[in-house]
Amino acid sequence: MPHPSQPPPRLLVADQVAGRISLLDLPDGGEVAALDHRHLAEHAGFLALPDGLVACVDDRAGELLLLDPYGPDAGRPLVRRRIPVAVPAEHLAAAPGGRRLAVTTGLGRNEEPWTGLLTAVDLEAPDGAVAVRVRGRVGEPGVTVTGGPSPLVVLRHREPGELLVHRHEDLMAAPPSCPPLEPVQRVGLPDADGHGDAYDPVTGRVFAAAGSGVHRVRHDGEGVAPEAPLPWAADGRAGGRGYYLRLDPVRRTLWSCVRGGPSAPGRWPEWTNDAWWHRLDTGATGRLELGPGLVFRLAVTARHIAYTRVHPDGDELILLAAPTAPGARPHIAARLPLPAMAGAPRRGGTPWDGVQRRAVAASPGAGLVAVSRGGHGEVHLFNADRAAPVTTLTLPTPLDDGGHLALITPDDGAHGDPVGR
């Protein structure tokens, strides 16, 4: 719990279907502020920025929103800035200082990729040109933005797989009318199966998850230098593909979920899932079995990593103890049951079409974990350190599709992971 002189933890709850973003105090769930008619770009998610700010994209309005979760305490509005960007937003990332951002576009409600618009943002642009749009490859690109005096925007593409490298300053200098812009460098990746991006501000490495492993390039002057990929195999477990990748700024560790089993979506209850981790400073790597079903995104707390597992036999929150002591290895600390969802995925159907889902969120500066219950307008709050439920928060909208969550504590260092989640 926070010290009495510190602001309480806060939770941003986005219902992207109903079009509402709520800001709640924790643990009581009192609503501090709300934004109506705001439809979060759920895949791009929330992005933590320095100074306690949070960025996200309103996919209906075509705006990047800079949110100030503790602003209402000082009489400031929740929305600090609104910046036009191209949509449907696919991924969102920032350079480590938070000044320069990039937003990619994807399918939206379309069957095929149709737009290659990329928006570059400079929050301190001296000439007032805060956001500039250019045209690149059509697809569903991931994105990272490197640090340094000349940041690079690195796009991860599939079919064919490649990294496209742009200088952020070149993007900002582009003329109007969304001109095409060629990258300054191309790096080949395996085709079709890229899924997940991370950036380490300390080493300047960009990471891209693919079926063959985690591919790496290092920011090297005006471009990037490829390095050997990291394998998924570890601890005697092999096979599968990482479907998510994020940097844990507390332990300087990459985390993913490696999925295996039958490829048919209707057999999703048979999918295998392993937590995969890689220490950035020591190179130690490991895998832990999580169980069958649907496991996707994860959340980082001060002392644990949180995964949710959806399965017809029962859903659960899985807490991995993630100690920071040299040589200490992560292990499963608790499995906590989650209340069933009325519209949950069923055997024989896909786990993502017309069904309810769960979102999970945590702060690297605290021990709380929030998990949504799609379709029920509920968020379940847990104390990871005690492996116990705290309370259930009730929202005014159903949270169809699971909604999306961001848990914030003051000075939690979440911006150390500069990719939207």
UniProtKB/TrEMBL annotation:
InterPro entries: Haem_d1_sf (IPR011048). SUPFAM superfamilies: C-terminal (heme d1) domain of cytochrome cd1-nitrite reductase (SSF51004). It comes from the Bacteria. This is S9 family peptidase. It comes from Kitasatospora albolonga.
